[in-house]
Design goal:
By secondary structure, this protein is mainly β. Helices cover about 10% and strands about 50% of the residues. The protein has one domain: Porin, CATH 2.40.160.10. A hairpin with a 3-residue loop joins strand 5 and strand 6. The two termini are about 25 Å apart.
Length: about 450
């Protein structure tokens, strides 16, 4: 109720501005999908189900349910700007994710769910919250979880923004030049669905709180830098994030590079206590390189590579969690109580490759196809989100094959139908084999998108 009142107050405030150009906008996306080897669809998880396979809910059956944002995440937002003269502007954007199926704000559904180290294949009962397909997401019930920032821009000096903002790697994948993800659909592309890739190694880092971002375009070149303030006493780098992006964009060709370094960031997972989650802390280093080339008017090729290195959190013992009988310096994340603390042990290296194409078959019909390969290198590291110690692991991979067809009914409305197969190889297959020895997961479905 309080969040609804805040939203109404925000709308009233911006509507009353006499000099600012303010608009209300949104995307509504709903559909139906079938997932193999799946748990129950979740009324609290932001998309309704996790299409990437595995997890504590894996079992031998299939599930069919409503998906929220199969192609584009359902959202509404307010944005506006004011001309300050001499080529300068003040601007803002507030953007909220929610579920069409339930009307709830977008969230992970992890709070109150069974622990991730208690596989559902061993549970005698089906239908409880622990059996639902819930995973980590950077959207955890924030009123404006997708974006919340203000900024100043100048034609000569560039723009600076302050607030909660997308990581620069997430922007490359989903939105820069139309997105460098060839399929670019939330339920039918692993790098679009999972913020693990947009966050450079953890979903929580796909969007950065308390961030300051600078951007400047110089002809076809764009330079961006982002810094997320940690705000913790004793060490200014604790819980901080630094990012950089250099891009070159022409009509038919583009290349984007971005890097991220994050200290003491989190990866959250299930906890059986309502209002609580488990949190694993780690450091991240990542690089993303993506290319696009329009070979013919109807045909565009896209490719990308991402390097991810996860290591132990720098300040875990001194500023996060001092031990069972010591001070718990950080007690909440995303408004949840932290009920279980884990310090990641590494290093763990992941290499991600993708290749695909978009083909405009007719004026109204577009076909997209992509192949994605996420390879975890052999090493000694923490094997799960609820693990502090390290173990030896051989090489593992998730190999995804995706296809999507879009049909435009108008400029604002389209239909889509998509398919994705997740094939787990090596240690990745063994992690979720359970009693049923499952290594292949399919997602098939379709829906409609309306923009306003």
């Amino acid at each position: 109720m309080k969040k609804s009142l805040f939203a109404l107050a925000a709308l009233s405030a911006v509507a009353g501005s006499a000099h600012a150009d303010v608009s209300l906008y949104g995307i509504l996306d709903a559909g139906v999908a079938e997932l193999t080897h799946a748990g129950d669809f979740s009324p609290t998880f932001v998309t309704g189900a996790a299409p990437t396979g595995g997890g504590n809910y894996v079992h031998s059956g299939s599930a069919t349910g409503m998906i929220n944002g199969g192609e584009k995440q359902t959202r509404w937002g307010i944005k506006g700007d004011e001309d300050l003269g001499n080529g300068s502007k003040a601007f803002f954007q507030l953007e909220s994710a929610f579920s069409l199926g339930t009307g709830q704000l977008g969230t992970s559904g992890l709070s109150g769910a069974s622990p991730a180290n208690s596989p559902a294949v061993t549970q005698p009962a089906i239908g409880g919250k622990g059996y639902q397909m819930v995973v980590d997401t950077s959207l955890n019930g924030q009123l404006f979880g997708r974006n919340a920032f203000i900024g100043l821009s100048n034609n000569e000096y560039g723009a600076v923004t302050f607030g909660r903002q997308n990581s620069l790697e997430l922007d490359i994948i989903t939105s820069t030049a139309g997105g460098y993800d060839p399929v670019n659909a939330q339920m039918f592309s692993p790098i679009n669905f999972s913020g693990f890739y947009g966050g450079g190694g953890t979903t929580d880092s796909a969007r950065v709180d308390n961030a300051i971002k600078y951007s400047k375009s110089l002809g076809a070149y764009t330079v961006q830098a982002l810094y997320g303030l940690g705000g913790m006493t004793g060490n200014n780098t604790t819980r901080s994030t630094g990012e950089f992006n250099l891009g070159y964009e022409l009509n038919r060709f583009g290349v984007e590079f971005a890097t991220q370094m994050a200290k003491d960031t989190t990866s959250i997972s299930q906890d059986p206590v309502n209002g609580s989650v488990a949190a694993q802390f780690m450091n991240l280093k990542s690089y993303t390189l993506a290319l696009r080339y329009q070979v013919l008017d109807p045909l565009t090729l896209k490719a990308g590579y991402q390097y991810i290195l996860q290591t132990g959190a720098t300040n875990y013992a001194s500023q996060i969690y001092g031990g069972t009988n010591a001070t718990q310096y950080m007690t909440q994340v995303y408004g949840y109580n932290i009920n279980q603390y884990y310090d990641f042990s590494g290093p763990k290296q992941t290499n991600v490759f993708w290749l695909g194409a978009n083909y405009q078959m007719t004026q109204k019909t577009k076909f997209s196809i992509g192949m994605y390969d996420a390879v975890s290198k052999a090493g000694t590291y923490s094997g799960g989100q609820q693990t502090s110690g390290a173990a030896n692991y051989s090489t593992g991979a998730d190999r995804y094959y995706s296809a999507l067809v879009d049909y435009d009914l108008s400029k604002r409305t389209n239909l889509y139908f998509g398919y994705m197969r997740d094939v787990k190889l090596g240690v990745s297959a063994g992690s979720y084999a359970g009693a049923n020895n499952l290594s292949t997961y399919d997602t098939i479905g379709g829906g409609a998108v309306v923009r306003f």
